[in-house]
Design brief:
about 150 residues, Ribose 5-phosphate Isomerase B, Chain: A, 5-stranded parallel sheet, 5 strands, about 50% helix, binds D-ribose
């Protein structure tokens, strides 16, 4: 998969570790930054990842900030993006199976690095169940068209 990844300063170190793991698993990783632990605005990097998915052909996106909350709020403003804030295996899997989430948001100040890697792997591998869930997410797309 082509995966866009980004973080703010709080997620920088976790991003560096996670991107190596994703590349080692055979994914094509596009790192949109940030490039250091210097303070930046999570908004900028969340929107870059979301746009990579929405407009520039990335299959999925992963964003890390301190809690994952701000990044998730920002990413969900971008058309066609369904960003999910995930804390555990259940929410990681269900965000794919029921919500067809195409962007994963993680809190680097909440989760240990190995947990972040494991949740990301689960999230990438989980399929979308379709069926009634297709209809439900379709309504989000319809709303976006009118908004
Ligand atoms: C940065 O201090 C922090 O606010 C940010 O990483 C994130 O947690 C925002 O939601």
């Amino acid at each position: 998969m082509k995966i866009a990844i980004g973080s703010d300063h709080a997620g920088f170190r976790a991003k560096e570790t996670l991107k190596l793991a994703l590349a080692a698993a055979g994914h094509v990783v596009e790192d949109v930054g940030t490039r250091s632990e210097d303070s930046v605005d999570y908004t900028d990097f969340a929107l870059k990842v979301a746009e990579a998915v929405s407009k520039h052909g990335a299959d999925r996106g992963v964003i890390l900030c301190g809690t994952g909350i701000g990044s998730c709020i920002a990413a969900n403003k971008v058309k066609g993006v369904r960003a999910a804030l995930v804390h555990d295996g259940f929410t990681a899997e269900m965000s794919r199976r029921h919500n067809d989430a195409n962007v994963l948001c993680l809190g680097a100040r909440v989760l240990a690095d190995d947990r972040i890697r494991e949740l990301t792997r689960l999230w990438i591998e989980a399929p979308f169940d379709g069926g009634r869930h297709e209809r439900r997410i379709g309504k989000i797309g319809e709303y976006e068209k009118k908004a």
